[in-house]
Design a protein that fits this description.
This protein is mainly β and about 725 residues long. The protein contains 6 helices and 48 strands. Strands 20-22-23-24-48-21 form a 6-stranded mixed beta sheet. The longest helix is centred in the middle third of the chain and has 11 residues, at about 285-295. The termini are far apart.
Amino acid sequence: MTVSADRLAEQFVLPPVIASGSALPDAPAGAAVAVTAVTGDGVSVEDGIIRLAGLAAVTAQIDVAVTEVVSGANIMRRFAVTVLPAAASVDLLAYSRTPTSQTEANNADVALSMHLALGGADGWAPLNENYGIFFPKTSEPVPANGPDESLIRSLRDPHLFALADGGYGIVATRVARGGASDGTQASSVLFARTDDLLSYTEVGMLDLGVADGVNDPASVWDSAAQRYVVSWTSDSGVTNYTTFADLADESTRGDVRRGTIAAAAGPSADGVADYATGNALPIPAETAEKLQVRFGPIVNTSAKVLDRVTVAQDAAISASDLPERVELGYSDGSEATRAIAWNAEELAAVDTAVPGEYTVTGTVKQPEYPTPFADERADPSVFRYEANGRVRFLMIATEDLNLNPVDPANGPHMPIRIADTIDDLSDDAIAAGRNVEIDLLRAGDEDAAGNVMTGCFWAPEFHVIDGKLSILFMPCYDGDNGRPDMWTGRASIIQLLQDAEGNDLDPAVPANWSRAEPVVRADGSILNPVQQISLDMTFFQDSGTSYYAWQMLGAIYLAEVDPANPTRLATEPVRILAPEYAWDNTIAEGPNVLERDGTLYLLYSGSTVGDTYTTGLAMAAADAGADLADPASWTKLNHPVQKSGMFNGEWQLGTGHGMWSSDEDGNLLYVFHARTDHNGLTGRDMFVRRVHFSADGMPVLDQESAEEVAPENRAVTVTVTVAPKPAFSSS
C-alpha cells in the first residue's frame, strides 16, 4: 500500500444518511471505487445507485474498495449508513443568499445567514419566506453597558451535514456585519449544531490549522474512520481537508492535506431567489413536516360539523341557544375556534310552535381591520377594560408623525382612544365621526415632582396594577439645547383615580389620572445610571409574583415589583435578554408577555425603528419554581417570529413593538406597528391581527385571511329540532 493510495482512500466517504436512489460519491481523481459487500435488509448497490426495497429506514453496512489507478493498490473502507426510503425522505437545501435590499427583506443582515428550503417535484420551496433561520451570535458576549455594533456577525457558505449522534452540524464562514472579513476566515470556520433543525447551538470557531484562507467549508462524518472530514478551498484556490474525532475539540484535529471530498459537494439551486451557495442532504419526512409546521404557512383545512340543537315545542329560542363557536382544523394538526354570527332572519323563522327540523346558517366571525389601523401610531397597545360593570376597549400609542416621536410637528402628546368595539378604535371610525382621540398628556404638563415633560411619551401600555388602571410610558424633558431630549426619558407610571367606593373614574378625563412618577430602584436610585434613559416598560405576573420588564442599555431587563408600590422595584434589575444576532443587532426592546398553557411568551423587538425592525420571541416556563431573573430560564429563538415580508399580497416592512391583546370574542390579538408611507407620511403605523398557535406551540403572527379561515369554511349551518310536547293520557 502506498501513501498516496491511503490518501486517496480517505477522500472517499459515504455520508452517514443516504436516501434510496442516491448515487455513490464520485471517486477521487486517480482512483476507482467498487462496492464489495452490502449488509442491510433490503439495501443494495447496483450501477453505483444505493437502493432500499423496504418502506422503513435501514442501517446498513457498505464495504467499498478504493483502488489507486497507477499502483493498483487497494484500500478497503467499511461505512455504516442509514438508508432512508425515497418515499419517506425529503431533500433539504441549506444556503445563504446574495444581499439585495431592505425593502425586499434581504439586506445583508438577513441574506448572510443560513436559509432552508425543502425539495419537491416542482423544485426547491424556501422555508420562512426565504428569510434566514440560523444566525451566528456576536463574536463576544454583549457588553454589560450595551451592544457594540463591531461585535455583530453574519455568515456565508453554510454547509449542513449529519452528525454521528443523529443530529445535524453546520460549518460556515463567519463574516463581519455586512459581509466583510472579520479576520477568522484565514484559519477557522464557524461550527454549530442542532438536534431538530428548529433550534441551534453555536459551539464556536473551529481552527483548521491553516493561515491561507478558508472558503466554502464543508464537513461529513466518516464512519469508516470514526472521524469528521472538514474540507475547504484556500484563498489561492487549493482544495484542502483535515479530520477531527470531535468537532468541539480542536486537539483531535489531524494533518491538513490536499484533496477534494466529493461527498461534500453542493448542488445548484435554480428557482431560489438570490441563492448564493449551499448544499443539500436528505432528511426524514417527519423532520421535514416539523420544519413545515415551524417555517411554512399554516392553513385552515376544516370546520367541525356543529351538533344539532333541540328545543321544546313552544319554547323561546335565541342566538344564545345555538353554538357560540366553531372548531377549526389546520394543515399542521393544530386547532382553533372562532365565534359565529347567526342569521337573525333564519333564526326568527324557527317556529317553535310547529315541531320539525329547521336550518339556520351563520358566518364565522373574522373581522377585517383597516390596514393600517391607525396612521402614525407606533408602539400601540389595545386593552380590554372592564370597570364599573362595563367592558370597553382602550387604545394608546406613540405619536410618530414622519418618524419623529421625540418632538413631532403637531406637538408631543399621548393620545388615547376609547370604544365599545375594537373596530371603533380605528382611524376609519374617527373619520366617520364614531370616535375621537383624546390627549391624556401634552408637552408642558408637569410630572409629580413638578418637572415639565416636553416630549416623547413613548411606548405607553395599559395594565391593571393593584386593581388600578395604569399606564407605563416614557416622557422626556428638555436637554441642554432647550429642546426635548430622549436621553432624559425615564420609565414612568400614571394611574387612574377611583372614587370613595373604589369605582374607576372616567379614563377619558386627563384630570382623573395621577401625575407621572418615574420607576426607580429599590434604593430610590435611577434605573439606568449609565445612560439615564429607561423605556418600554411592561408589567406581568406569574405564580403570584409581579414583574416589570423594560429596555435599557439596549437590552431587556427584569425585576420584581410590589403592585401596591408600583414606582419602586422590589429587586435589583437583571438583564435577561440582549441582541445577539444580525437581525436584532443593536437593540432589544419593547417586551410584552403572555402566559398560555404553562408557557410565558415574551415578545420583543430588534434592529432599528425603520424598515429592518423585527419581532423576536423568548419563552420561559410559567412555574412557581422558575427563576425568571435567571437568563437561563428564557429560551430565545435564533430567528425572528415576525419580520418584513408579504402579507395578503402587500409588503409590510419594519414590523415590531407588538403587544398581546384580545378582542370582543376572546380571540388573542397581536397589535404592532410597521413602517409605511400611508397618506404620504413616513412614520410607523398601527396594525391589528388575530393570533394562531401552531401544533408545536409557536405563535403565528402573520396568518393571512384565507389561511385563518378558508373561504369554503366561512359559512356554517346548524340543524334546530323542535321536539313535540309529550302526549298525555288519562287512566
